[in-house]
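Predict structure. Chain length: 199.
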Amino acid sequence: MINRLLLTITGFLLLTTAAYSQSFHFGLKADLSFNSLHGDGLAGTFKPAFNAGAFGELNITKKWAIQPELLFTLYNNKAGADFTKYYVNSGASDANNSKIQLGYLSIPVLLTYNVNEFLSLNLGPQYNLLVSYDETLLQSGRKAIKKNDVGAAAGLTVHVSQVRFYGRYVMGLNDINDIDNRYSWKTHQIQLGLGILIK
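Prediction complete.
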């Protein structure tokens, strides 16, 4: 239910962006991120990685705007030392402490409130599509991670002319464990980065 609601909101915000394209601006962004996969059998620690892509700014009023983005997101994580304790029958023999590297196509659509000309607050849904993965958690080459992840993003942005400095937290809302439904795995991400407005 939550996933459908967030995807509906995302679609609505994207359509609104298209309808008001005459006041739409865009740029490029990149950040250092700290990502974690939380759940039983996972290490649950934050590891450094990155996000990179493009963003838009659609000014609705002086105070309110919509900010859609299209990003490539990298997650570097690893299984817990006790992974095979939870997956005795299906876990690979070398799964404990093995690396988990995930690449997502991420689409956040954020509602922006401009506190003043220098500072804005951002909040909205984010959809992640798994496009690459490197993990050997299970036997027979079976994949352990679901392809779809929906989250909620919140943060703030500092505006200095055409440059945007931002910090953001993204919390996964759905279970990405594709092994079974016994244990829930969720994504968490802290982002620190900058964007440059091109137009």
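Summary: The chain has one domain: 2-197.
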